[in-house]
Amino acid sequence: MNVVRKFLDGFRWKGVEVLDYKPAGTHFRSISRQVLFDGPGELDAQLRYFAIEPGGHSTLERHTHTHAVMILNGRGRGLVENRVYDLAPFDLVSVPPGCWHQFRAAPDAPLGFLCLVSTCRDRPQRPTPSQLAQLRENPELAAFIRT
Ligand code: MN
Question: Is the pTM of this model over 0.85?
Fold first, then answer.
C-alpha cells in the first residue's frame, strides 16, 4: 500500500488506474473513476475521484448509503433530492440516504470530484418511469435531468 500517492498533472494520481465509471450503460456520459483509497479494514470506506468531461454527466440514481462529495476541479451542477446546485472547487456536497442525485459538468468545463463511500454499500437504483415522471414535475429538475 502506498502511503503517499503523488498528485500528477490532469487530476491523476501516481500509480492509480483510470477506470470506467460503471461497467456499461447509456445513463451516464464522459465520466471516469480513480480509486484513491480503499479501506484496509480499520476504515471501511473508499475514496474515489470522478472526472466528468465537459457536457458529461453521472447516473441519476439513489441508494441507502451516503456520499460525501468534494469538488476539486472545474465547474458544474448537481441535483440532490429536489434541488439543483451550482458547484465549484472545494464545495462539499452531502448526499443523504435515499436521495436522488446526479452530477453534470458545465458545457465548457470539466467537473472533477472526490466521493467518499462506505465499502459496504447497496447497489444504486435508477428511477422507474413513474418516479422519473414525478421528478420531472419539478421544472428545475426536468431541465437538468439526463437519462
Ligand atoms: Mn450515488
Answer: yes
